[in-house]
């Protein structure tokens, strides 16, 4: 395939053949994303060496990112332990997470990581691409069979850039960024056409991603689909991982999915089958679906964990946050029906994280591997009477973030914001690959801050929250939201950490309120949000001219 043909494929956002995707695509991306033309034509391995030689890092770090779905920031045991006790400003959930507790003691624990748009697909698109959703192909919601949401195949993502730099790349678990089309047979086999034998969806809320640009250069591929924690559809680029099935043919393990996925990640780390080059750095992203719903019955979780830690506990005693109450509408499900199973899934995923981190250590990879633990959004779990996400309240908006890099980072608590669009520039910065950051990326590079080389005053002091009809932000002190009709939420997080008292904006000092109004306008412009384009609610939001 000619360079012209490859460029045309990317512009048209069509999948290329496997052969053309694997090799010519590397050089094309180098041309697209590198800041220096002379670097664009270097072989990936030589390029990585050149970049790291200039950064003083003789050995590029590996990257292991773990982000379970719907894990709220307070659901970690270490918040109740020194030196973290009191940092939250509220009580922590009574969950059992010994492996993440140990990881926290070796990590930079970021206090104010947020989801930006607390729902699955938008977060994943922002995290992977470093861009706000308007620039990714995903609107204000998930990729589902009844909409056209789907991350652009031509969008350079963090795994594309690392692959260009000579990294071996892998992805395991939930993706939820691909356009959901009826390209499957009745038996869930990918056929790539809407006419028979195709014409079927495999799931209303997610879909399989075939080999090509949609996988964003992840070569070691294991995808889990469907919100059925003990029996998802699993697809892989490696037949031995799915009982001999070829890529595009599903296999169902009938086991708790994080156990299966942890085995796959460990297989990659141990590398007994030579799936990666041991002389090259790697990036492995693992995205378990639990503790995402369902969480209403023993079948929705690992029952051994449920019985050991939570089954005999009164659900009301597990809901310790002062802002929890039953739903105001009787027909809505209550957190009392869910909390035992939600916490059981958290503890079970923690157990599997422990197995993966042990394998990393046993492989001699701990010292030079960046380990990141985070989530795509939180979970209300009864706070303000709600379940789910897509709200500005801390329980849904704030997410955990632990970053361990023994070779470079000093373990500590770091009071700073961190958003999904910051992941790409920060990871590239930590890896010494900032030259790979593509034009148009929206995020902030926190790598110098994490390494102790930046003035905190130079870092962002607010983070955007937005949905289609509600816009807001969080500063360290205030949480603010305004909807299309002009109704506002405003909380003083220092005086009211559980966000129970909605205060009048006029009660806030003028300089602080002006900062909120101006900063929200600037962030909406940066996000290229329709409100900025139409100057919606300009009676309150101060948009830049």
The gist of it:
With 545 residues, this protein is α/β, with parallel strands linked by helices. The protein folds into two domains: 3-458, Alkaline Phosphatase, subunit A; 462-534, 2-Layer Sandwich (Arylsulfatase, C-terminal domain), CATH 3.30.1120.10.
Key words describing this protein structure:
ten-stranded mixed β-sheet; 2 domains; globular; alpha/beta; disordered N terminus; 14 strands; Arylsulfatase, C-terminal domain; single chain; 545 residues; Alkaline Phosphatase, subunit A; four-stranded antiparallel β-sheet
Overall description:
This protein is α/β, with parallel strands linked by helices and 545 residues long. It folds into 2 domains: 3-458, Alkaline Phosphatase, subunit A, CATH 3.40.720; 462-534, 2-Layer Sandwich (Arylsulfatase, C-terminal domain), CATH 3.30.1120.10. Helices cover 27% and strands 14% of the residues. The chain contains 16 helices and 14 strands. It has helices spanning 3-12, 18-22, 24-33, 44-55, 98-104, 120-129, 158-164, 257-270, 303-310, 315-318, 339-362, 394-397, 423-430, 447-450, 510-526, 530-534; strands at residues 62-66, 108-114, 168-173, 220-225, 233-236, 282-287, 369-374, 398-399, 401-404, 412-418, 462-466, 470-475, 478-483, 488-492. The strands form 2 sheets. Strands 1, 2, 3, 4, 5, 6, 7, 8, 9 and 10 form a 10-stranded mixed sheet that branches. A 4-stranded antiparallel sheet has the order 11-12-13-14, with helices on one face. Helix 8 (257-270) runs parallel beside helix 11. It is globular. The N and C termini lie far apart (46 Å).
């Amino acid at each position: 395939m000619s360079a012209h043909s490859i460029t045309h494929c990317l512009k048209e956002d069509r999948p290329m053949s496997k052969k053309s995707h694997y090799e010519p695509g590397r050089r094309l991306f180098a041309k697209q994303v590198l800041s220096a033309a002379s670097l664009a034509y270097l072989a990936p391995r030589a390029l990585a060496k050149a970049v790291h030689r200039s950064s003083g890092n003789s050995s590029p770090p590996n990257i292991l990112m773990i982000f379970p779905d719907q894990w709220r920031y307070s659901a970690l045991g270490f918040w109740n332990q020194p030196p973290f006790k009191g940092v939250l400003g509220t009580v922590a959930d009574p969950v059992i997470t010994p492996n993440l507790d140990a990881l926290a003691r070796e990590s930079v624990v970021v206090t104010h990581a947020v989801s930006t748009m607390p729902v699955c697909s938008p977060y994943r698109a922002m995290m992977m691409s470093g861009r706000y959703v308007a620039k990714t192909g995903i609107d204000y919601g998930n990729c589902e069979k009844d909409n056209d949401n789907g991350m652009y195949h031509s969008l350079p993502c963090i795994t594309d850039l690392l692959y260009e730099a000579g990294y071996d790349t892998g992805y395991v678990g939930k993706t939820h960024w691909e356009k959901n089309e009826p390209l499957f047979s009745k038996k869930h086999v990918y056929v790539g056409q809407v006419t028979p034998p195709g014409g079927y969806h495999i799931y209303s809320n997610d879909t399989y991603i075939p080999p090509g640009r949609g996988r964003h250069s992840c070569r070691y591929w294991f995808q889990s689909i469907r919100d059925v924690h003990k029996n998802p559809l699993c697809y892989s680029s490696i037949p031995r991982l799915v009982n001999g099935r070829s890529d595009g043919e599903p296999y169902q393990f009938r086991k708790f999915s994080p156990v299966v996925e942890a085995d796959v990640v460990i297989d990659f780390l141990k590398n007994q089958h030579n799936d990666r080059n041991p002389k090259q750095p790697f990036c492995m992203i693992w995205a378990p679906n639990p503790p995402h719903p369902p969480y209403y019955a023993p079948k929705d979780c690992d029952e051994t964990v449920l019985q050991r830690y939570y089954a005999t506990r009164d659900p009301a005693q597990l809901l310790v946050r002062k802002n929890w109450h039953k739903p105001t509408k009787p027909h809505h499900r209550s957190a009392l029906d869910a909390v035992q199973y939600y916490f059981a899934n958290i503890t079970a995923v923690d157990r599997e994280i422990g197995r993966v981190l042990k394998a990393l250590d046993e492989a001699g990879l701990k010292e030079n591997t960046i380990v990141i633990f985070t989530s795509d959004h939180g979970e209300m779990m009864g706070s303000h009477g709600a379940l789910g996400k897509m709200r500005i309240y801390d329980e849904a908006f704030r997410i955990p973030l632990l970053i361990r890099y023994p070779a470079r980072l000093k373990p500590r608590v770091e009071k700073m914001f961190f958003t999904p669009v910051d992941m790409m520039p920060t990871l590239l910065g930590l890896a010494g690959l900032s030259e790979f950051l593509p034009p148009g990326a929206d995020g902030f590079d926190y790598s110098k801050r994490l390494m102790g080389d930046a003035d905190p005053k130079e870092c962002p002091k607010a983070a955007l929250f937005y949905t289609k009809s509600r816009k807001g932000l969080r500063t360290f002190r205030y949480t603010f939201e305004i909807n299309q009709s002009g109704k506002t939420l405003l909380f003083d997080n220092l005086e009211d950490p559980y966000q129970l008292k909605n205060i009048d904006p006029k009660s806030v000092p003028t300089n602080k309120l002006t900062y909120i109004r101006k900063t929200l306008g600037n962030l909406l412009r940066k996000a290229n949000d329709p409100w900025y384009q139409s100057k919606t609610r300009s009676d309150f939001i101060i948009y830049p001219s």
